[in-house]
Amino acid sequence: MSVPRTPSGDRLGRLLNLVPYLLARPGILISEAATDLGVTGKQLREDLELLWVCGLPGYGPGDLIDMAIDGDHVTISHDAGMDKPLRLNPDEALALIVALRMLAETPGIGTRDAIERALAKIENAAGELAGTPVAVRLPANQKRLTAVRTAVESGHALQLTYYTPSRDESTDRVVDPMRMLMVGGFNYLEAWCRRAEATRLFRIDRIDAFTELDEPSAPPAAAVPHDMSTGVFRPGPELPLVTLRVGRGGRWITEYYPVEQVVRDGAEWQVTMRVTDLGWAQRFLAGQGRDVTVVGPPELLERIRAQAVAALDQYASPAAG
């Protein structure tokens, strides 16, 4: 009799709980564990084979999950930190629900079905918490996407109010639209920016306001489309270079962001990476905690130090009234 394959999301949940389950039952029979987990012995052995090559970023011998299989018995010998069953507290569950609802309302997301399935599972597990009156609606995004696309097709210039998160500021500019494109699940307007006198990418959900002008879009000959084969961010030598020392809990940075060099030195790694500007780096690194230490440049160190001192001063000063 063939056994239907379970969805990858179900398998992920089973894998996350499998390690702490086996840790509490060293030497358990694989058949007994399979019965407890509601899978066949063959499925459980496949799960164990997958776990064997899973672990923390770095994936060296000391980072991977390790186990001993003696005939029909299995024992976890190294858990790679996965020693507790996955449990969400109310705040974490609500944060996930809000984030997934926001993603589901964002136009241009290509994985909407997967998002809605994940949201349904979390809401079902959250019980009454899922009924918390938190509504997420982003109707302006869809209208803005349609309107910008219409302007591009009609060949008109646009006046934008655009938010730049790396500098935490909004600016007004007139642009000559060139094309619409989607990269990494986000919609972008590529246009000639008259203010910067260069081709720029504007993420649609960061356009705070816009006006379609009567004048035609007229990109100059210098308006060359970007090569998007490597993504939106293209680090170059003109951008600031930041050096960090990251512990085990901060190694995810090397996988999520483009880095120029990683030097593995025991438990800590030294990482160098380009950033759009030091203001973004300050806000990003100030929230990373003890797993990330900033080595340079000195200007960034001073910015973070001044921010920390200002925060401590707020705690030292009694609240007025």
UniProtKB/TrEMBL annotation:
Origin superkingdom: Bacteria
Residue stretches making up the PafC HTH domain: 10-123
Keywords, sorted A to Z: Proteasome
UniProt keyword Disulfide bond present: no
Residues of the WYL domain: 145-210
InterPro entries: CBASS_pafABC_assoc_protein (IPR051534), PafC-like (IPR028349), PafC_HTH (IPR043839), WCX_dom (IPR057727), WYL_dom (IPR026881)
Domain WCX per the UniProt entry, residue ranges: 241-312
Any Gene Ontology CC annotation: proteasome complex
Name recorded for this polypeptide: Proteasome accessory factor C
A matching Pfam family: WCX
